[in-house]
């Protein structure tokens, strides 16, 4: 009987795979870098950007599919690979929640389901089409110049979000070639990354909830509204195979002259008209490459091959018009994006704004900031948080107004709500989360202090008037979507809206372009500009005439004639106000006087002591009671309030006054009160008494004097009683305020404890996901070992040769 020494088992050779023609990426030695974005000062030519150069057309750019998964994702991804053809020309990258302390065997498990090469990612590895890549454990993975870039996984207590991190990097590199997919998993990793992919024109998918073993990640992704398709894994594979063969895919990304699909200006004009009629927004002067990419994306999703077919589809489906409109508008943003810019605000802008105030923290001089294109509000709230941190203890004495506007009504509604998913923990520090947010039901709500600083409103920058007397405008990543005409109009508008030496903050890829005569550089690296004292036209037309043309029957008048007519109307209005309009004042919502209109000295007078514009302290004797109740009623109901028969003493005589309070609301959402005074004191006729009536008339002054004294005494008693009530109310208010402060303090302590528990829960959840993934790998490995053992038993049973297994020490095993 022969003895056979056991030797170390040689690695099994992988079966040879069928290979077709060399892939396009194999013909290159260097990856194709993403085309740099042209600065807005010299916008790229639309035709050149659409058609590309011959060299760019010759380069083989391919789609990159980023797949995020966690617990239960291995089974879904295996089904996905088994149904995906090997010749789609796409690179497939799996980002999985892996244990940081155990080696992953995912590539070995996945090779059984596909003939495409499946490899672990290494630093600097080039991405090739028709390849599958698996993220290694204990790293953060990104894409840089067509190659993988790995960084160590952070070891702080923040939740590990590898899917969001990779999809953001993929969106930045691949732009419209990016495809994001979220499979089974718990928590919400991947939802923010899908929003980034969709924002750059990529396609997004999520696993259907009924097929997901754990539906946390797919459910969170669908809730963002950024998912184009919800499909089972096999359906995703079939959809990718269809997209890979779609004639528009290559045409829109690497167009050639011989392509049979074209996008001509006439077709675009028809689409612009449909959008304008449905949404009242004209996209004619938006960057055409962006419009065309979004148009091609919608055609891919609806399996439409020609633009004419899609135009007919738009005409027949109004809901698709709204979907295309929402797709064109970019709503992706995040808290403290480009953190260097916020550091510049803290170090340069805010100190300059405070130093320019004539008196320290004047109530009449609020800090005014405008963030146009605010999307869902993250940027406006980031500015507010930065300003609060800068002011510190001085916050209570500085009024702050932050106007945040966007063209999208749904985005503005989301910003007003101020509720954000847990994924903001990647951008907001734990200290800021604890101080400025409230945790509730798996999300974070901005607290009332920050929310009250921000006023949100819908605004079309190309049509609606701007705000004025602003200290700072933060307009980032808006101008890059507009052509030179609209950029110039917006720069003139921003110059008009800013105070002297006001600041303008732009995005990292934006400049003031041809408006260098309006702004000077304050910080070139952070795109910070200062308003110049330059004379500009006072008839700024914010809308190009090609967008909203005037009817032919109403021709435009010469500017000189319009200016002359405007001057005459202003003079007429002034005369009417002086002679016929009742005197009054405009109040803010806190009863502070904002503007005096007409002569109000008979009704209001400055109170002794420090200067104060509180109308309740300036009201003359006899006016306070009716005035207070009317103001409170108008503010509470939002409707006009009127008080009649009030008596005040002025210039040694009593006056009878009627008072009317009218609530007002500006276009920006700011609320005010208009208070009008109507003096209805009857005139006293001068009569010469006759001799017969002299005796009877002599008693009348005495009766009148007695009656007047009695009324004055009643009025004084009523006034004293009201004053005592006011004092009691103020004392009760102070007690309530003290109790409220104690409750807030206790609430902060409870919130801090709750956040610590949430952090511990997130760490346990992340560890549980990694253990689930490791368990799935072990199950797969166990199945392989069982199969190999079964094969070995069958082999031994079928071979008619006596075999003895011995160890290295010659011992029979």
What global shape is seen?
A: elongated
Distance between the termini: 15 Å
% residues in beta strands: 15-25%
* Rg, nearest Å: 36 Å
Largest sheet: 7 strands, parallel
Strand order of the largest sheet: 4-5-3-2-8-9-10
Rounded mean pLDDT score:
77
Low-confidence regions: 1-60, 251-261, 542-557, 559-563
Number of strands: 26
Structural class: alpha/beta
Amount of helix: 40-55%
**What is the tally of helical segments?**
23
Structural summary, described in words:
The N terminus is likely disordered. The strands form six sheets. The chain has a seven-stranded parallel sheet, sandwiched between helices. The chain contains 23 helices and 26 strands. 42% of the residues lie in helices and 18% in strands.
Task: Please outline what is shown here.
The protein is α/β, with parallel strands linked by helices and 813 residues long.
Summarize the SSE layout with pairings.
Layout: E1 3-5, H1 46-51, H2 54-58, E2 64-69, H3 73-83, E3 91-96, H4 106-110, E4 118-120, E5 132-134, E6 139-144, E7 147-152, H5 162-174, E8 178-182, H6 191-199, E9 203-207, H7 216-223, E10 229-231, H8 233-245, H9 247-253, H10 265-279, H11 288-301, H12 307-316, H13 318-328, H14 339-355, E11 367-372, H15 378-391, E12 400-406, H16 409-417, E13 419-421, H17 430-436, E14 437-440, E15 443-446, H18 448-453, E16 454-458, E17 470-475, H19 484-497, E18 498-506, E19 519-523, E20 528-531, H20 559-579, E21 584-588, E22 593-597, H21 615-618, H22 624-637, E23 641-650, E24 653-665, E25 671-679, H23 694-798, E26 804-806
Parallel strand pairs: 1-26, 2-3, 2-8, 3-5, 4-5, 8-9, 9-10, 11-12, 11-17, 12-16, 17-18
Antiparallel strand pairs: 6-7, 13-15, 14-15, 18-20, 19-20, 21-22, 21-25, 23-24, 24-25
């Amino acid at each position: 009987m022969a003895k056979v020494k056991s030797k170390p088992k040689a690695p099994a050779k992988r079966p040879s795979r069928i290979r077709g023609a060399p892939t396009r990426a194999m013909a290159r030695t260097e990856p194709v870098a993403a085309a740099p974005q042209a600065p807005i000062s010299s916008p790229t030519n639309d035709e050149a950007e659409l058609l590309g150069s011959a060299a760019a057309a010759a380069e083989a750019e391919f789609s990159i599919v980023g797949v995020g998964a966690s617990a239960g994702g291995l089974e879904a991804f295996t089904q996905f690979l088994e149904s995906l053809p090997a010749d789609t020309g796409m690179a497939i990258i799996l980002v999985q929640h892996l244990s940081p302390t155990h080696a992953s065997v995912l590539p070995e498990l996945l090779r059984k389901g596909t003939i495409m090469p499946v490899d672990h990612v290494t630093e600097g590895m080039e991405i090739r089409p028709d390849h599958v890549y698996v993220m290694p454990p204990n790293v953060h993975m990104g894409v840089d110049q067509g190659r993988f870039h790995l960084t160590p996984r952070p070891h702080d207590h923040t939740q590990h979000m590898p899917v969001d991190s990779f999809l953001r990097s993929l969106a930045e590199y691949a732009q419209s070639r990016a495809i994001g997919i979220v499979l089974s998993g718990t928590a919400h990793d991947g939802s923010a990354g899908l929003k980034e992919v969709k924002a750059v024109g990529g396609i997004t998918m999520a696993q259907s909830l009924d097929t997901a073993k754990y539906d946390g990640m797919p459910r969170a992704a669908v809730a963002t509204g950024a998912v184009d398709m919800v499909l089972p894994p096999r359906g995703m594979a079939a959809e990718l195979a269809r997209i890979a063969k779609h004639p528009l895919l290559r045409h829109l990304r690497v167009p050639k002259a011989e392509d049979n699909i074209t996008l001509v200006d006439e077709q675009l004009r028809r689409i612009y008209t449909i959008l304008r009629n449905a949404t009242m927004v004209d996209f004619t002067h938006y960057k055409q490459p962006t419009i065309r990419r979004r148009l091609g994306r919608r055609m891919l999703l609806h399996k439409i091959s020609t633009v004419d077919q899609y135009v007919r589809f738009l005409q027949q489906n109004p809901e698709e018009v709204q979907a295309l409109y929402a797709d064109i508008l970019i709503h992706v943003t995040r808290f403290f994006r480009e953190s260097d810019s916020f550091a510049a605000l803290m170090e340069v802008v805010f100190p300059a704004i405070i130093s320019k105030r004539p008196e320290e923290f004047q109530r009449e001089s609020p800090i005014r900031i405008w963030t146009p294109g605010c999307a869902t509000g993250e940027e406006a709230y980031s500015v507010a948080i930065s300003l609060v941190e800068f002011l510190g203890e001085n916050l209570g004495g500085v009024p702050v107004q932050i106007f945040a506007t966007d063209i999208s009504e749904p985005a503005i509604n989301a910003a007003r709500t101020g509720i954000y998913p847990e994924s903001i923990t990647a951008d907001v520090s734990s200290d800021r989360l604890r101080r400025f947010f409230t945790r509730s039901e798996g999300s974070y709500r901005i607290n009332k202090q920050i929310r009250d600083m921000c006023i949100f409103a819908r605004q079309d920058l190309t049509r609606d008037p701007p705000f004025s007397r602003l200290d700072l405008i933060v307009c980032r990543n808006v101008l890059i979507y507009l052509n030179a005409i609209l950029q110039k109009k917006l720069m003139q508008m921003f110059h008009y809206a800013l105070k002297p030496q006001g600041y303008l903050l732009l995005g990292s890829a934006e400049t003031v372009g041809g408006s260098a005569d309006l702004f000077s550089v304050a910080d070139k690296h952070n795109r910070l500009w200062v308003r110049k004292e330059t004379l500009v036209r006072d008839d700024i037309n914010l809308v190009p005439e090609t967008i909203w043309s005037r009817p032919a029957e109403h021709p435009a008048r010469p500017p000189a004639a319009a200016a002359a007519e405007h001057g005459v109307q202003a003079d007429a209005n002034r005369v009417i106000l002086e002679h016929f309009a009742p005197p009054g004042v405009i109040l803010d919502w806190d009863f502070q006087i904002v503007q005096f209109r007409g002569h109000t000295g008979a009704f209001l007078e400055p109170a002794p002591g420090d200067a104060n514009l509180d109308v309740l302290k300036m009201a003359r004797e006899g006016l306070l009671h009716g005035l207070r109740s009317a103001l409170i009623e108008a503010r509470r109901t939002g409707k006009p309030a009127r008080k009649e028969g009030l008596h005040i003493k002025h210039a040694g005589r009593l006056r009878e006054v009627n008072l009317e309070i009218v609530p007002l609301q500006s276009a920006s959402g700011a609320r005010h009160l208009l208070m009008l005074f109507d003096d209805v004191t009857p005139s006293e006729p001068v009569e010469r008494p006759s001799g017969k009536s002299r005796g009877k008339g002599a008693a009348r002054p005495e009766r009148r004097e007695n009656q007047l004294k009695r009324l004055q005494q009643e009025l004084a008693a009523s006034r004293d009683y009201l004053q005592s009530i006011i004092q009691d109310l103020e004392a009760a208010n102070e007690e309530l305020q003290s109790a409220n402060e104690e409750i807030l303090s206790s609430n902060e302590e409870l919130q801090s404890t709750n956040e610590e528990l949430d952090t511990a829960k997130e760490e346990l959840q992340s560890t549980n996901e990694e253990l689930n993934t490791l368990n799935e790998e072990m199950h797969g490995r166990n199945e392989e070992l069982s199969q190999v053992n079964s094969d070995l038993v069958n082999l031994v049973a079928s071979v008619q040769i006596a075999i003895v297994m011995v160890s290295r020490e010659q011992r029979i095993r």
